[in-house]
Amino acid sequence: MDASDWDRRYAEARQWSVEPNQTAARLISALPAGRALDVAAGEGRMALWLAAQGWRVEALDFSAVGLQRGQQHAAADARVSWRVADVRTADLGERDFDLVLVLYLHLPRADMRDVLARCAAAVRPGGHLLVLGHDRENLSRGVGGPQEDAVLYDTALLGEAVDGWQVAQLEQIERSTDSGTAIDTLLFARRP
Ligand SMILES: C[S@@+](CC[C@H](N)C(=O)[O-])C[C@H]1O[C@@H](n2cnc3c(N)ncnc32)[C@H](O)[C@@H]1O
Asked: What's the CATH number where 47 sits?
């Protein structure tokens, strides 16, 4: 899906809950607030939650309509800057962020590898990278998410981005949804 497809989808209706992803929120809660980059932030559920926890957040997405939903939310404040950009070409900076998070961004594997490498480069020494998305096994035993193997995650793909880092979690996890159990891949790692 390109930016106009996502704009159309967001224009039709709110897509995701305004609640933060619970796994990501639990892991981030243990960190001191700092500067965060939310890559593919969508309607900003994580960016808004992070700001409420005292983080300064850059929320990046190529859907202007998705970001506008977050921006219009009552909880939005000056701690979030909303940036319309394609993550495949955007400058993400070098060692600028205490936390970079990427939730449910699904791109063809070569693009995803490149994006993850640049996300990792944007993390400060001592900072964290958190990536969470649909696992390849979701196709055979999970529900929801993209139905193309070529854009789904596995632990090998996510692990490549953090060679030499302190990896706290790199694993498949299960997530309960209204339509059944979804299989996700989770990476949470600290840059030395
Ligand atoms: C499934 S949504 C997830 C949104 C958000 N991370 C969340 O968990 O609520 C995927 C998001 O990725 C964004 N996206 C997809 N490809 C992108 C790209 N190349 N550059 C920037 N954003 C992209 C879409 O616009 C969409 O908002």
From this structure: 3.40.50.150
Determine the atom of ligand 1 nearest the C-alpha atom of 90: 20
Indicate if ligand 1 lies below 6 Å from the C-beta of 139: no
Structural element, H or E, at residue 129: strand 123-134
The total of structural domains in the chain comes to 1
Map residue 177 onto helix, strand or coil.
strand
Does residue 86 belong to any structural domain of this protein?
Answer: yes
**Whether this model's pTM surpasses 0.85:** yes
Is residue 189 a part of any domain in this protein?
A: no
C-alpha–C-alpha distance, residues 191 and 124, integer Å: 7
Q: What's the average model confidence in pLDDT over 59-72?
A: 94
In a domain? residue 188: no
The best mutation among 2, 4, 5, 6 to test binding of ligand 1, ranked by most ligand atoms within 8 Å of the C-beta, falls on 6
Mean pLDDT of 72-96: 90
